Amino acid sequence: MLRRHLCISGAALIAAPLISRASSTFPTRPVKVISPYAAGGGPDVQLRQFAPSMGEALKQSVVIENKVGAAGVLAAQFVAAAAPDGYTLLMGSNTHLIQKSLQPNLKFDPVNDFVCISNMAASPTVLVVSADSPYRSMDDLVVALRKSSGSMNYGSGGIGTSAHLAGATFLNLNNLSATHVPLKGSVEIAASLLRGDTQFAFPVAGTGVPQVKGGKLRALAVTSRNRLNQLPDVPTLNELMKNELTVQESWFGIWAPAKTPMDAITALYEATVNALKLPSIRTAFENAGNLAVPSDSPQSFSSFVRSEQKKWADIVRLTGISAS
Fold first, then answer.
1. DSSP label at 110?
2. Strands (DSSP E) along 125-224, which ranges?
3. Which of 27, 123, 239, 299 is the Cys-Cys partner for 10 at CB 3.0 to 4.6 Å?
4. Residue 44 sits in the same domain as residue 138
């Protein structure tokens, strides 16, 4: 029997209006959100800042559990196999779409195996070097890369992550070469730069901006369409390179296993959106380089995920990245 394409068409969601919370008893126990990011990494920190407010809206605790590995694949496989009752959720992101493009035979499908509830935040990546690096601009780094004949390294949280794609796009468009060093998680990027194991990286802003503000790293450019409010003096790559393919923003939101009941979807959507509207949450996200972006509905988030799947597949083809 064909599986329903919940995240593409949101068929069950479109066919019926959202059920009123008044008719729902969900949730009756704590809700668990699986984070695919290492504890202390930017997106994980944002999720932990957000969880108490989501819990208040649900009138239940929201517990965060980290399942790190394979660039988010382990977490996604775990949630895809979980009971579809609304009590086990995934912090789903564009990284999961990228991984499926890289590895079509993965044992999860980011579209068919999940119900998309709401986006939470969007964030570009930041081209960074260590604070004591001799490179003070993108041009400085490009000159050094040309002279290095491929001997320089750049780090990421794993193969196919946003940091990896941003780095590969940067090198490809400038006809440069460098060795990619996949780390165990984005939280290790700064340490790798400070040790000198890598010379540059593209962590998501949620991870990179605090390190820049803390004086450990230096930002050379950002991959957003517009400059970040937190780093107003740092140019965008699009300003410097005049190429739309340099505009790359990461995002993360809440996904539930396919076939999760409508009353749970409704309650989770309302709790997510209400929490994201709080000034304290929006400020916390912005301070870390993210922008709170609640979806208009689960259906609109489903449509967004579908369009993102195509975009990141195109970027994977451009860069020639493979999972092997």
1. T
2. 126-130, 153-156, 179-182, 200-201, 217-222
3. 299
4. no
| Residue 152: domain span | 126-246
The rounded distance, in Å, linking the Cα atoms of 159 and 165 is 8
Rounded to two decimals, the pTM is 0.77
Per the domain annotation, does 324 fall within a domain?
no
Of the candidates 265, 272, 264, the residue with the CA atom closest to the CA atom of residue 116 = 265
Q: What is the DSSP string of 214-248?
A: TTSEEEEEE-SSS--TTSTTSPBHHHHH--GGG--
Identity of the residue numbered 66: N
Half-sphere exposure of 203 (CA within 13 A, CB side): 34
Q: 114-139 pLDDT, tens per residue?
A: 999 999 999 899 999 999 999 999 99
Q: What average pLDDT does the segment 229-238 reach?
A: 94
Q: Which residues of 132-152 are buried (b: 16+ CB within 10 A; e: fewer)?
A: ebebeebeebbebbeeeeeeb
Cβ atoms within 10 Å, residue 279: 7
Q: How many CB atoms lie within 10 A of CB 230?
A: 19
Characterize the bridge pairing of strands 62-66 and 31-35.
parallel
Give CA–CA dist 289/201, Å, rounded.
Answer: 16
CB neighbour list of residue 53: distance below 8 Å, 6 or more residues apart: 274, 275, 278, 280, 281
The domain tally of the chain equals 2
Residue 1 lies in a domain: no
6, 105, 279, 284, 312 from 242: Cα distances, Å: 37, 36, 35, 31, 20
* Domain C-terminal end among 246, 262, 295: 246
Dist. CA 227–CA 235, nearest whole Å: 6
Express each pLDDT in 251-264 by its tens digit. 999 999 999 999 99
How far apart, in whole angstroms, are the C-alpha atoms of residue 263 and residue 280? 28
Please tell me the predicted confidence (pLDDT) of residue 74: 94
Kindly state the DSSP code that residue 20 receives in the 8-state scheme.
P
